[in-house]
Amino acid sequence: METSKEAAKNFSRPVELIFIDGAHEYRFVKQDFELWFPKVVDGGVMAFHDTTNRYGPGKVVKDLVFQSNYFRNVGIVDSITFAEKTKENSAKDRLRNKYLLSLKSSRELAAKLRPARLKKAIKKRIKK
Known about the structure:
Distance between the termini: 57 Å
Number of domains: 1
Strand order of the largest sheet: 1-2-4-3
Oligomer: single chain
């Protein structure tokens, strides 16, 4: 089995769909992005796994997809974020991407707060 770096080095054909799911540390996810982004054709799709519950993939999609001028039609399904590569997105695309990023961030914050609230409620009940 090859590493992503080895596979990208030896891959010369244009890519229409790439699914990035490997090591979750930021530097590795960013490296995968940087290796494969140039190979993805305009209109092709990049998809990333574990973007809603892992720091590395989440930061990569925040910095390099949602806030980029090269992606449109960004979407999220469960923990997968996907986007269509384009030469340059429009102002409408950028606004939609930022809106979706704010929804994603709000959802992640709510998920983090729920367990804390539940623990407090349980402790209150136990004390009674």
